[in-house]
Design a protein that fits this description.
Blueprint: H1 2-35, H2 39-51, H3 53-64, H4 68-93, E1 96-97, H5 100-120, E2 125-126, H6 128-153, H7 162-201, H8 206-211, H9 213-231, H10 235-260, E3 263-264, H11 267-289, E4 293-294, H12 296-317
Length: about 325
């Protein structure tokens, strides 16, 4: 009976989070248009901060209570899920076009961060000084991304008349805050907690819980954001959210968890999970760089890569 109740909570949260995500995507678009900022910048910063909040809560809490496997597995599993499942589904639903310079910079930066992570965890632990280094890299990215957005701002046309600006920005902020807070709360208490309870009932190892069920649960805000923004023609937010969410998972989420307690890294993560994430990111880069757009066939490729990852994960490592 208890397990059935947890399943019902999980499914109910999934249904409600679609509406809250729709609300804060509308708010994000309003803010981008009023402030004349690139939607990709809003997607990689504000939207990503909201959608990665569940991962942050889970990983930081897990590190504090002495569950490093869940902390690391949740962050890395969410990154893999964001590219293979979340972005794959988004592309299947609707084509996503990209700007060459912006795309090349953000994806190259993400690949660089992954290579840095591989070096940092090669000794089997993410120490506090290394976690602090991750925060430094995050600050550098945010500053450089802001400068890039300001440079692009001059080329964005004024879409809103001056007399409607204040009203539009107020509505945008209200939608973004209400939708964002609702999304975080639903993901945290409606999906993550029931997900842990369900996995625990089946005696699943914490690293597997983090890499799969919790990773998918905490990635649902990203999934719904990609679906909604793609369907409404805001593909820049869809791509920016996926890239931004992965950068925040690696630099902010793991950085914060590592500052609380040094994170021991298991061999499977070093030799399989991190390299898998790097390979998937490189595949994503070249799929979009060729024609500067993602079509349905590229979506199926990413989904196939995610299924292959899960097959290898369960078949050979756990």
């Amino acid at each position: 009976m208890e397990l059935t109740f947890q399943f019902l909570i999980f499914l109910g949260a999934c249904a409600l989070i679609f509406k809250t995500t729709d609300l804060f995507v509308h708010g994000a678009v309003d803010l981008a248009e009023v402030l004349r900022l690139p939607k990709a910048f809003i997607g990689v910063t504000l939207v990503s901060l909201v959608t990665t909040a569940p991962e942050f809560i889970v990983s930081v809490t897990s590190s504090y209570i002495g569950e490093p496997g869940l902390a690391v597995g949740n962050a890395l599993g969410s990154c893999i899920c964001n590219i293979g499942l979340v972005f794959g589904v988004g592309i299947v639903l609707r084509e996503v076009r990209v700007d060459k310079n912006d795309y090349k910079y953000k994806l190259s930066f993400l690949v660089g961060v992954l290579l840095l992570m591989l070096c940092l965890i090669a000794n089997g632990v993410l120490s506090r000084p290394e976690a602090l280094l991750l925060f430094g890299v995050l600050i550098f990215f945010l500053i450089s991304n802001y400068k890039l957005a300001m440079h692009e701002r001059d080329g964005i046309k004024e879409l809103i008349s001056p007399d409607k600006k204040n009203e539009r920005i107020k509505k945008g902020i209200i939608k973004f805050i209400i939708g964002g807070v609702g999304t975080v709360l639903l993901a945290r208490f409606g999906m993550v907690q029931p997900g842990i309870a369900i996995a625990t009932a089946f005696n699943v190892p914490t690293i597997i819980i983090g890499l799969t069920l919790i990773a998918v649960g905490t990635s649902l805000p990203e999934l719904f954001t990609v679906i909604i923004s793609s369907r409404k023609g805001h593909s820049e937010i869809a791509l920016g959210n996926v890239v931004g969410a992965n950068l925040l998972n690696l630099l902010f989420v793991l950085g914060a968890a590592g500052l609380i307690n040094p994170l021991p890294i298991d061999n499977e993560t070093i030799i399989f999970n991190m390299p898998s994430l790097l390979i998937l990111t490189v595949i994503m880069f070249f799929l979009g760089f060729r024609n500067l757009k993602y079509e349905r066939k590229e979506g199926y490729v990413l989904l196939g890569c995610y299924v292959l990852y899960l097959f290898l994960l369960f078949g050979f490592f756990y």
